[in-house]
Amino acid sequence: MDELGWDLKLVGEEERDEFDTDDALHCALFEGHKVVGGFRLTPTDRPYLSRDIFPQLATVRPFPVRADMAEISRLGVVGEGTERFRRALAVYGLMMEVARAGRFVSLVAVADLIYERFLRRIGIATHRYGPPGCVGTDRFGRTLHAVAGEIPLGEQPAQTLARLRASLQDVEIHDVASVFGPQRLSA
How far is CA 18 from CA 56, 73, 140, in A? Predict the structure, then answer.
């Protein structure tokens, strides 16, 4: 799912880093037996990628260290055109539902500027931690720019949340007990 050309660490065919710990929750969106999207969620009171690898992007507001805020990383969606857009809405819908169930108040991320524009397009409100900055070069030698910020869950427009919830009408959540402990989500 690496379409941006980021130089990623691979173990065999798997992308892995020091933030793939028991503290991280990996969420995948399947269609049939094929993974078509997903993300990693890590509470910000533990080591996390945005703060520990890209501290230079938080020049206006510091990265949080709070149990009620989580970082989203490893975000990805596959597909083309309207199929990709539909899947992206479902991934963001799933992200909001997982955050709500986990009682997180905000989602933190470092994102390519393309994703920031996509969030505006679908109506998700964000707050930057600083201006975009260079975060290295891709495997083709091109400069990569990204921005750090958050999605404050309490500030999301009701119509946006309703649209994202509607994108999940055909989504089943599996292994909820292992994700949220003995707590269950009711559908």
Answer: 19, 13, 24
